[in-house]
Amino acid sequence: MVVPRGWPWGGVPLLMTAGSANTASLNIVACVKWAELRPEIDPLHGSVGDQPRGSGLSSSDLAAIESALVIAEAWSQSGTESSVTVLCAGPEAADAALQDLLAVGVERVVRLELKEQRSSAQVAECLAAVLTPEHLDAQLVICGDVSADRGSGSVPAFLAHQLGAVQALGLIGLEPTGSGRLTATRRLDGGRRERLLVTAPAVISVEGSVADLRRASLAATLAAKSKKIEVRVLRTDSPVEVHRLRPWRPRPRVLAPPLGDDALSRILALTGAQASSTSSRTLVLDPEQAAEAVLEQLAAWGYLSDAPPT
Amino acid sequence: MSNSDVPDVDVPDFDVVVVGAGPAGSAAALELARAGRSVCLLERGPYPGSKNMYGGVIYGRVLDSLIPNWWEEAPIQRWVTRRSTMLMTGNQALTVDYRSNTWGEAPYNGATAFRPDFDAWLAAKAEAAGAVLICSTTATGLLRDGQRVVGVRTDRPDGDLTARVVICCDGVNSFLAKEAGLYPPSDPANYTLGVKETIALPREVIDERFAVRGNHGVDIEILGCTGKVPGGGFLYTNAESLAVGLVLSLPELAKCGRRPEEILAELKSHPAIAPLIEGGEVKEYSAHMIPEAGYKMMPELIGDGILVAGDAAAMCLAAGIWLEGVNFAIGSGAAAGQAAARAVQRRDTSTAGLGDYRRRLEANFVMTDHRKLKDAPHLVMSDLAQQQLPRIACGVMEQLFTVTNPEPKPGLRKIIRSQMKLNNLKLRDAISQGVKALRTYG
């Protein structure tokens, strides 16, 4: 399977079906990622150490799977047969752990082998290509909110866009309310909560605190040993090119030698202590202008360029 | 269990359940699977070796018959070609260093390895032969039909697993063997605490400091480095890290009121050790109990429907000169697997039916070596070996090599006698202990 690169700016096709009354069953897909859980990052040059057996599913991914199982049970009880599929982006090393998921009630596990490094948008494209009605036919997609390997949490948003589905991201609570519907709780600033009514087709992401994955029975664990993991290998025609790995920190600033008659005044000049600090700004902008402003500020701080800021 | 809970054992889930996927358990499962028996290998960690700690050398000769040419695929760190024994006082060290490049060529002698790598490799062999490996599952108790063991209860929902034979390879302080009544009440004096730091260093730095090249490595055993607590120390080279640690008598450690990491810090700062580990980054600190007393603490190895192997059966050999564990675990595990397979085939898994296990152990190195060296652990932990011997040996060397001109050189006999006197060792005690050591190791 080859996934063409390109953002569908010309219009987002509706790739998820609603299921509901006309559909005999609903398919809930938990999208997860096999990632380094405790990456060891060299503080000097930012290289990531190779940790054999340090990989796995993050707590939020496990919460996504448990949430999918809970919702499927509730929807099935309310009259619409529902099943859970796990779609995992990861290498062959993940297979043994993924097989265990077949023991907890997951009906089908598909491992997506991504051969090249990809951006979040490209990962979402790959996932969307498998979630279509021709393949997994997902009515509800549940993701962990952030992948363990320093993810930005953007894949679920890209995925919702790709699939043309509604999205509710970074959820801290989920409650199935009826066939194809659920109530979601999201954290807001200031300790406030937002409650959302979500109807399939939708893409949601959950924090790790939402649920703990249930423990499989011994009989189910033994039975799962003979089940197979489906594998799909995806290649993209234009993978992301990684020019250089570097630590996630601002570049050093080039400063003129500090002026001052004594050491204290030179240190004060150098550090900017006692000088007025940059005050926070409130900008009211439309989304495109806001994005530009954010990029501009990040560049000013030195995050977006290898060259030291002047 | 109540009688109503007695499981149906006419058609058990497996012929044999092996508890613990360490070297003993995997060797047992491998033998059983190869004999065509259905076998389930239970492991409480997320993967074999994940719960294991070992600071030692793996001697692989026992694998020759189990996995031919095992050295071509076993995940080892370095082949040990230098074996050193160091006697140490607070600021002195006397080292006897032996090097053999023969040990660095096939079929090799011993190797350092990371247990998560080695145990997972051995368990994969058992799986490939047909054993069913179930990880993240703890055996919490035995299932019984009267006195007969008919399976194990696990911590999973609906977690009972029935079998004709249960082989306990659940490590030191085996709860299952104790529950089966195979162990007498525990004596803390039979146990030591092993503590270990894994210190990362670049490969070329290790090669330089330890005078080795390629995949050759060093094993240093140390006596006199544990203060007033009887025990010993060790330092092993891995590919890009060192394992430095201590083995400490459990009751004496408790009595002295010091923490093991304090004693380990003293060893690391010793002038003979500090330059070897300098600049390294501590990646891991771990601790584990060791069944130090070996033969004298071994449980009943066979019960009705149950066998005990590996550290669960105190098969670890802590005999001073020889410090071995994994090879004894593999040897006993393989013997248990063979005996269980035979008993299942003959449909007699009673204590008598499983008696072949004992006979196999007696016929190979496992029980022969343990019986022969049964007094060695006590000898190594004696005051003479722990306190007086390192001080006298280092003192003699100090006097022997210190040039005292214009005073004439003292004779060797005079030096030895003065050091013995200084350390309150009488000649008759030295002779008595020497004879005892000769009898033990001879």
Automatic annotation (TrEMBL), chain B:
Pfam family, one: FAD_binding_3
GO terms, molecular function: FAD binding; oxidoreductase activity
Cofactor: FAD
InterPro entries assigned to the protein according to its UniProt record, in alphabetical order: FAD-bd, FAD/NAD-bd_sf, FixC-like
Presence of keyword Repeat: no
Chain ranges of the FAD-binding domain: 14-195
Keywords, sorted A to Z: FAD, Flavoprotein, Oxidoreductase
Protein name per Swiss-Prot or TrEMBL: Unannotated protein
Organism, scientific name: freshwater metagenome
